[in-house]
Amino acid sequence: MAYLTKLNNRDINTLVYNYKLIDYIKYTPIYEGIQNSNYILITKNNKYILTIFEDQYVIKNLKQYFDLMTFLKEKNFSCPSPIKDIKNNSINSIYDKPYALVNFIDGKYLQKHALTHCSQLGKYIANLHIITSKYPKNIKRRFNKNFYINTIKDNHSQINQYSNNLINLFNKEISELHNINIPKGIIHGDLFPDNVLFNKGKIVGLIDFYFSSTDYLIADIAIVIISWCFYSKGNNNMAINTAKVNEIIKSYNLVRKLSFHELSSLNTICKIYCIRFFLTRLLDYKLKNDSQKVLTKDPKEYINKLLFFVNNNIQFEKILFNE
């Protein structure tokens, strides 16, 4: 989410007419985030999210994300789904950019998470994976091996500014993907805290499915571990909250059984996703967007988390398999 394309009252009035938004009241830009432009549209009885898509990869693949979101909605999974206008279109264009209107989920993301929140999330992810196992289509992986190789190559000098040995470490971890043979399916792919909405302490939905892909199912758990379960010990040292990790894995396992091999691969998958988020943040950082409109996050955070996994060979399989 971000605020990159500015709309005026005339734009909004046209949109309100096209979608028959009865009793429209006002619109508000959403300033947080790093991807696309988002507004909240408010009517007397409803709220909607208007998204103007800025990310070229998402634009090229927008239909497949909408197909997935529509499928999930039909299966009663709580997530945004596209709304059609008076011409039965779910995707339109403004200022030569595609945009869409989706339903609003009445919830907020949490800054701090208790074990009960982690327990809910584990079950929620497992339920998502069970539902998507029936999805008849694949979604191409955006962050495949070519992404890592090409991005590292194109940003060699910038990466070396963080550490001379970082590229060697990246390449070593990426090479480990050859040795992984575990279940794949459609994942959310971006389960940071701000994409999980709560209301009165209960999860009410997941948002932002624009990084979804066919990938290792355990990757969604890896993303949650590295974005929900770390805390700073100062001096760039990171530590992991093992109670939260245990709660996420055990609660997930209650809904969808995890295999020994999935959990034994989790340490490697966590490292791969630390590299992914470092690289994507590095690319965002290079854009030098206006900080008043786009939230730019520090890439170094994920180097520190990567080093934690490198220096601590966590055996996640012991959480369920006492070996």
Describe this structure in words.
The chain is of the alpha+beta class and 323 residues long. It has 2 domains: 9-103, Phosphorylase Kinase, domain 1, CATH 3.30.200.20; 115-319, Aminoglycoside 3'-phosphotransferase, Chain: A, domain 2 (Alpha-Beta Complex), CATH 3.90.1200.10. It has helices at 9-18, 56-60, 62-74, 115-132, 145-154, 156-160, 166-175, 218-228, 242-255, 260-287, 300-311; strands spanning 24-30, 37-43, 47-52, 92-94, 97-103, 184-187, 196-199, 202-206, 213-216, 230-234, 237-240. The strands form 4 sheets. It has a 5-stranded antiparallel β-sheet with strand order 1-2-3-5-4, covered by helices on one side. A hairpin with a 2-residue loop joins strand 10 and strand 11 (237-240). The longest helix has 28 residues, at 260-287. The model is unreliable at 289-294 (pLDDT under 50).
Which secondary structure elements does this structure contain, and how are they paired or packed?
Layout: H1 9-18, E1 24-30, E2 37-43, E3 47-52, H2 56-60, H3 62-74, E4 92-94, E5 97-103, H4 115-132, H5 145-154, H6 156-160, H7 166-175, E6 184-187, E7 196-199, E8 202-206, E9 213-216, H8 218-228, E10 230-234, E11 237-240, H9 242-255, H10 260-287, H11 300-311
